[in-house]
Amino acid sequence: MLDKLIKKTLGELAKINSLEELQDLEVKILGRKGALTNHLRGIKDVPGEEKKAYGENANKAKKTLEEAFDQKKSELKEAALNSQLTTENFDLSEPGIKPEIGHIHPLSKVQWEVENIFSQMGFSIMDGPEVESEYYNFEGLNIPKHHPARDMQDTFFLDKEADKKHGRLVLRTHTSPVQIRTMEKYGAPLRIIIPGRVFRYEATDASHDTTFDQVEGMLIDKDISLSHLKGILQEFLTRLFQKEVKVRLRPGYFPFVEPGLEVDFSCLLCGGEGCRVCKNTGWLEFMGAGMIHKNVLKAGGVDPKKYQGWAFGFGLTRLVMMRYGIDDIRLLKSADPRFLTQF
Ligand code: PHE
User: Fold this and answer.
1) Does residue 288 line the site of ligand 1, with CB under 6 A?
2) Gap between the Cα atoms of 16 and 179, Å rounded
């Protein structure tokens, strides 16, 4: 009885050539009231000692048929697809519709590269508030109230006080305040970079804007010297530009470092020979740096007798402009698609 059912079903299956017919047959055999299902139900009338063999055979038959139905189903589907491809005029050589995808802003792109390189060298990435207090932006960094160094960075003040100790609120003029915030929070040793937006009250032109991006770096540990700084920077720039870059240190002044430095790197275009880009000097100005002033370590709660370290701050915006040959800083905030879609 079972063998006959299998044979008959397989015979009918072979003749089927549409998915609808296939489904009808499947219902007739394997459906709730299908022939095989009924047969399976018949087990209740079978004498005890025969039940086992009966059930096994019925289940084997069910499996055989299910496989046959599945097989047929995929054959029919494939045939349908093939006939669609041959009957509909399907031109494989026609260009596809390009999906509209957004663009990564060049500032983000370079920021991520910088973050990756420093992460690989064991630095963590920190963040801090753009609206700062006078304390973190100035006093904590060894720039007292009436120090002329405040004039170096024209500041946007908010008409509000943080509190008595921290003074007025300002839009941070550099990422250096996060040096102190990080020391306060994590103590020493530290190895961090701080990318972020900074603000200065500037007259805007092709190379100045009121908003730009910096990357601060700071390393605090025992027995740290400026040779570590030089080595790290040289490695960083060589990885970033994927060519050998040299670094030069010159004396410079910032109240929060002692000694303070200006850092240059060898011109990317001429490699140091002298050209139009480096104004024949062979060097490009890069950033400020130095050994962290002991007053700054103290402000962060780090003991200057036990630890020392260096810090640096460079303009990410300028790096991006150099990288892509962008000649007007204002383009970066312009949201102009003609500019942005080039990246
Ligand atoms: N904060 C300085 C600036 O914005 C840069 C700097 C950072 C200098 C750290 C020395 C050490 O100009």
Assistant:
1) yes
2) 77
SS3 292: strand
Cβ neighbors of 259 (< 8 A, separation 6 or more) are 251, 290, 291
Q: Which two tokens stand for residue 147?
A: 């120090």
Angle between helix axes 316-324 and 106-120 (nearest 10 degrees) is: 110
Which pTM does this prediction carry?
Answer: 0.72
16 to each of 23, 31, 73, 86, 225, how far by Cα in Å? 10, 18, 10, 22, 84
Residue 312 near ligand 1, beta carbon < 6 Å: yes
* Distance between CA atoms of residues 104 and 317, nearest Å: 15
Q: In a 3-state reduction of DSSP, which class is residue 88?
A: coil
- Cis? peptide before 259, omega within 30° of 0: yes
For residue 27, report the distance from its CA to the centre of ligand 1, in Å. Answer: 78
8 CA → ligand 1 middle, Å: 88
What is the distance between the terminal CA atoms of the chain, rounded to a whole angstrom? 73
Interval 131-139 mean pLDDT: 96
Q: Give the residue whose CA is nearest to atom 5 of ligand 1.
A: 313
Name, in order, each residue with C-beta under 8 angstroms of 214's C-beta and a sequence gap of 6 or more: 174, 175, 195, 196, 198, 313, 314, 315, 316, 317
Cα 183 from Cα 53, distance rounded (Å): 79
Cβ-based burial of 231 (10 A; exposed 0-12, middle 13-18, buried ≥19): exposed
Nearest residue to 309 via CA among 216, 194, 214, 190? 190
Q: Look at the chain and count its residues.
A: 343
From the CB of 254, is ligand 1 less than 6 Å away? Answer: yes
DSSP string, 92-140: TTS--PPP------HHHHHHHHHHHHHHHTT-EE----SEEEHHHHTGG
Residue 29: exposure state from Cβ atoms within 10 A (0-12, 13-18, ≥19): buried
Q: Whose CA is nearest to atom 9 of ligand 1?
A: 312
313 CB within 6 A, ligand 1: yes
pLDDT at position 127 = 97
How do residues 166-176 score in pLDDT, each as one tens digit?
999 999 999 99
